[in-house]
Design brief:
This protein is α/β, with parallel strands linked by helices. It has 2 domains: 153 residues, VC0802-like; 185 residues, Vaccinia Virus protein VP39 (Rossmann fold). The strands form 2 sheets. It has a 7-stranded mixed beta sheet with strand order 2-3-1-4-7-6-5. The protein has a 7-stranded mixed beta sheet with strand order 10-9-8-11-12-14-13. It is elongated and about 70 Å long.
């Protein structure tokens, strides 16, 4: 197995979720991903070239990624970058473009014009308008946390792939529906594997946002909701995008499914508690987690959101889960979400 040094440029749309997604995608597809450095919006890790293929298929909060050519201290200025470029043949990587990214105010001593002038010496086609130049690889120069990361890009996020599935463009729209990108995060954090043809389950599926994202990347997906109109909407949305409408009307606390390889869901924050016959949202969540644990395969993952503080960590652990990750997500003034990634033990 060929191990290479890779850089991952994170989107910065959330403090912890992008890095978690980078790790989860590798874990889902059984690809090595040994993080050597976690910089501000940048990861440097040992992985394999196959990692880029799965980023292209799955990633939502990762902007770019590629092969590391070198890392230098930003305090060395342009000389540090020069020492890296001097030791590599950029023509071998078909480099014809350059991207200069400064994270926040890092590396203020390094100026873009100086970098551009330097790179031109090493890339003969940099200023070319030929088809070769426009289709060539991009040299990434990223400044973060006192270092400069220089690499050849192998993955670039395309937001156009998500825009066609924006909630307002679907046949059925429900207020409060998460964006396709955020829905994809839940799917990815669940470690559902495309390679293994895993079955992804959303027990509070609403009008099908999570199921859409699971389907688009090639997973088998099914879901349920206690609201018949939501289920009807999910079926219409899934069929519109060419996905199997594997959705039924059911109580998430009495799931009609026998097994799932991965579960990802965003339960209602109190709105349906009384409808479902539970005195409190805490009672509802405990019952749901208990049922989810009973159908989730051992060693597999559940990702769920909740209104902050509803279920305690001790509650989750007492039900047979190990907490792997916790992410806090501020939505608006009156709502902060806890996002838990838990593993059945």
């Amino acid at each position: 197995m060929l191990i290479v040094l890779v850089y991952v440029y994170l989107s910065g749309e959330h403090r912890t979720l992008p890095a978690a997604e980078a790790r989860a995608i590798a874990e889902a597809e059984n690809i090595p991903f040994n993080v050597l450095a976690h910089l501000d919006q940048v990861l440097i890790a040992e992985s394999t070239p196959a990692y880029f293929k799965f980023l292209d298929l799955r990633a939502a909060f990762i902007k770019t990624a590629g092969l590391v050519l070198g890392v230098t201290e930003s305090s060395l200025g342009i000389d540090g970058i020069k020492s890296i470029l001097r030791d590599v043949n950029l023509e071998e990587y078909s480099v014809s473009n350059v991207s200069f990214r400064r994270i926040k105010h890092y590396g203020s001593e390094i100026k873009f014009d100086e970098v551009a002038d330097l790179v031109k010496r090493y890339i003969s086609s940099l200023c070319s308008t030929s088809k070769k130049a426009s289709s060539g690889s991009t040299l990434d120069i990223i400044l973060s946390n006192g270092v400069v990361v220089v690499g050849v890009r192998r993955y670039t996020r395309s937001l156009d792939k998500f825009r066609d599935r924006n909630p307002q463009k679907r046949p059925v729209y429900k207020p409060g529906t998460l964006t396709p990108e955020f829905s994809r995060i839940f799917v990815n954090l669940s470690r559902a594997s495309v390679t293994n043809n895993d079955l992804f389950l959303d027990p509070f599926c609403g009008v099908g946002g999570f199921l859409l994202e699971a389907c688009v990347i090639g997973l088998r997906a099914c879901g349920c909701d206690i609201n018949p109109s939501y289920v009807e909407g999910a079926i219409r949305n899934l069929e519109f995008y060419g996905c199997p409408p594997n959705v039924v009307v059911a109580d998430a606390c009495e799931l009609p499914f026998s097994r799932a390889d991965a579960i990802g869901t965003d339960p209602p924050y109190g709105r349906l508690t009384k409808v479902l016959g539970y005195k409190t949202l805490h009672d509802l969540m405990l019952k749901f987690l208990e049922k989810a644990c009973s159908i989730l395969r051992k060693g597999r993952y559940l990702v769920f959101a909740q209104k902050h503080g509803v279920v305690r960590e001790s509650d989750i652990e007492n039900l047979g889960f190990k907490i792997v990750e916790y992410h806090k997500n501020w939505v608006h003034g009156s709502l902060t979400r806890d996002i838990f990634v838990v593993k059945k033990i």
